[in-house]
Design brief:
By secondary structure, this protein is mainly α. It has a single domain, classed as Four Helix Bundle (Hemerythrin (Met), subunit A) (Up-down Bundle). Helix content is about 65%, strand content about 0%. The chain has four helices and no strands. The longest helix has about 35 residues. The two termini are about 30 Å apart.
Length: about 150
């Protein structure tokens, strides 16, 4: 349920097995990201600054970890993936600074964009990295077991 100061949407980002990529450390950090974004979506205006600080700290560690993996494993499309990380972090830091001027709407807009961005980023860029690292370590793609997904 959203707080009265938050948007009236029921589309809060929530973790599910659909986000699993089969690389434990990546799945863990993604679950943390989804949790922070969901809490930002549900937060009242007074809680936004502290949650944005938490998001910045999380993203710095999250992106640093993935960037390190890409460099250490010589992941072929690392350039565009790392550029996207840098752009997202820059946007979050800019919004955090602008939000200090007293307008929570800019934060809420960013959070909704992050909630929309993450599934595609994870499905395309991060899954390729998870597959790459699994192939290097085990010789093939990771096996991912998911619960409660509709069969096609």
């Amino acid at each position: 349920m959203n707080h009265p100061d938050s948007p009236a949407s029921n589309d809060t980002l929530a973790w599910s097995d659909a986000f699993l990529l089969g690389h434990g450390p990546m799945d863990t950090v993604h679950e943390e990201f989804v949790d922070i974004v969901g809490r930002l979506q549900r937060a009242d205006n007074a809680a936004l600054p502290a949650l944005m600080d938490e998001l910045v700290r999380h993203l710095k560690a999250h992106f640093e970890m993935e960037d390190k993996w890409m460099l250490e494993t010589d992941f072929p499309p690392r350039g565009c993936h790392m550029d996207e990380h840098a752009a997202v972090l820059a946007s979050v830091e800019e919004v955090r600074a602008e939000m200090e001027q007293g307008d929570p709407a800019i934060c809420r807009d960013l959070v909704e964009h992050l909630a929309a961005w993450f599934p595609g980023h994870a499905d395309h860029l991060d899954s390729a990295l998870a597959h790459w690292m699994s192939k290097l370590r085990f010789g093939g793609k990771p096996v991912v077991l998911r619960r409660d997904l509709p069969l096609r």
